[in-house]
Amino acid sequence: MGQLNIIITMVLTVVLNLQISFVLAHETKVYVVYLGKKTHDHPESVTESHHQLLRPLLGSKKEVHDSVVYSYRHGFSGFAAKLTESQAQQISQLPEVVHVIPNTLYELTTTRTWDYLGLSPGTSKSLLHKANMGSQVIVGVIDTGVWPESEMFNDKGYGPIPSRWKGGCVSGELFNASIHCNKKLIGAKYFVDGLVAEIGVLNTTENPEYLSPRDFNGHGTHVASTVGGSFLPNVSYLGLGRGTARGGAPGVYLAIYKACWSQIGCSGADLLKAIDQAIHDGVDVLSLSLGSPNIPLNLETDVNLFAMGLFHAVAKGIHVVASAGNNGPAAQTIANVSPWILTVAATTLDRSFPTAITLGNNITTLGQAIFAGPELGFVDLTDPERPLSGDCAELRANPNKTMQGKVVLCFTADLNPTSMAVVNAVTAVSNAGGLGVIIARNPTYSLIPTPNFPCVMVDFELGTDILFYIRSTRSPIVKIHASRTLVSHHVATKVATFSSRGPNSISPAILKPDIAAPGVNIVAANRTGVVMRSGTSMATPVVTGVVVLLKSLYPHWSPAAVRSAIVTTAWKTDPSGEPIFADGSSRKLADPFDYGGGLVNPEKAARPGLIYDMTIADYVSYLCSTYYNNVSISQVLEKKTVCPNPKPSVLDLNLPSITIPNLKDEVTLTRTVTNVGPLNSIYKVMIDPPIGVSMTVTPDTLEFSSTTKIVSFKVRVSTRHKVNTGYYFGSLTWTDSVHNVVIPVSVRTQIFQRYYDEN
């Protein structure tokens, strides 16, 4: 009996397994059948064609009707239907079918710069004319040197060199001081001893360079010409961005201090020597398109010494402008955070270089490229699906002969504008005999100039559309047109992805960056004519040019006064009135940690109304409020200094901003403004408090006269939040109906002080 039960059980098991196999073989699930472009204009006819396709396979009209889930009949032709795996395989073999895929579940988830900023030479009332093009101001540029033959450094129309100038030019490799300097380029020196002491004698065979002020890299030449290059009409880069190239202050005197070296960098020791020399030589403004590491200050580090070297420059009345860094869009990546430095973020212009990509289905997508042409006619288009993943970074490591004679689409998630993923993709496709590459990525504004080999950038959405076309077409093809220049207000202004962001991790109550300026695809001089470059390095000399003009107009204004004028008058929208966004892994409205006071507005900065001024005593109070002690500050100032006890509050530093990183209950802080407008003026306060924060200003009206030019006010800030929050943003404005003096306000509630939250 027991053996019989075992036999019966085995038989039942075999029968059951056969039934399960039969059911599985005939189990249906939803498949999407893509047929490509519609062959009928009428939607009902399209649907009927779908049914006719299914009827031989399914048998009856009823079964077809029960099977079809959707009929795609407007933008393209296709349908979703419940099919078995076998039926899906059969239908995929039909000649009219492009693709059959299982249904997938998704989870819920410069030639333009100055016109753009309104700084045109067109009228006698413009800042450019009032400031006489920046004449009589000397700018020191600490960078990679200069290419003196550039026409943007010609000295036509220049008079004698200012008698106060103590600097000069130094000869070296391919640089003759008596020939290459002139009445515009009045200084050129180089500093390499610190680097040599660190790494040994420079091997200019392995790392090509000139042991002289001559610029091998081109970076310093670009920066210097953006600050004060002479007018150079009818220039373009590869036919794009055509116009008149010039610096922000074309009449300025330039002094070049080469302390940075190609492929190696800048030695802190050399930078300090360059700063020291510039102070001695008598520069009025220092422009530094370089960043210091974002680590806590320590008197024994080069980082702090670099900042303190600039402190000494400011103490001499020299205006210091420096870049925010290119480590965005992550928070707390900002560089050059000392309060005596004017720190510059980068935005786009209202200019782009649309490059048409026309697919074989006659759909045209506009990417971005610097592609001079000629146009690439219809050629094969592919994505390296197998054996590669489609990741741009993998193309070079896995050369694929299937790319020969084709345009290749690849994807990269790397946000770093200096990433080699794009360069590697271009190299790999070119070496494999490919004809071009389309890069799908997050926007970084790092376009690679390709005179004859198209490298077109699109975002992930457009890249996915192109990928769908490739996967749904048997013989995908593409045409790539030459890039063209598009200007004016059709192109929105955005903070560039690469631009480093606040908050300031070293001194959180000091807002950084201070200001933003165009730094994407800026046309300026280099060793072969003009070139486009992007970075906060390019934005910095734009603001330096504005500083020069303000210095010319108001020669006795302090660096803090000029910084205040620039910050408090900045655009919060772009010049056309559209919101400024900040690009990153996702796009958002820009806030003070993206662009400081906003986008620099040169003409308004010349008429600020009120300024938030500071002297060296204010900076000493700042040092006292930080980790500096009496001894170290005394050493910095070369005189005995005793900090008050208790320490002064950093919140009272007279910045044109209010940043409170750790508000628990309430705090009261002080600001002081100086009237630089009409003598008899009355200003009233307007408050736009951050969310969940209350602000009270006392007094709420400021009255100025011939005897009252400086007035202080207090700001009481309290929080209504009951938990630790992130930063919320607002503003405080003084207005006399003519001038609107706006400072950004950033407040973070910290009920638990000094608390780090992973959530």
TrEMBL record:
Keyword flag Transit peptide: no
SUPFAM superfamilies tied to this protein: Subtilisin-like
Domain Inhibitor I9: 30-108
Sequence similarity: Belongs to the peptidase S8 family.
Active site per UniProt: 143 (charge relay system), 219 (charge relay system), 537 (charge relay system)
Assigned keywords, A-Z: Hydrolase, Protease, Serine protease, Signal
Name assigned to this protein: Subtilisin-like protease SBT3.9 isoform X1
Gene3D superfamilies per record: 2.60.40.2310, 3.50.30.30, Peptidase S8 propeptide/proteinase inhibitor I9, Peptidase S8/S53 domain
Residues annotated as domain Peptidase S8/S53: 134-574
First and last residue of the signal peptide: 1-25
UniProt keyword Cytoplasm present: no
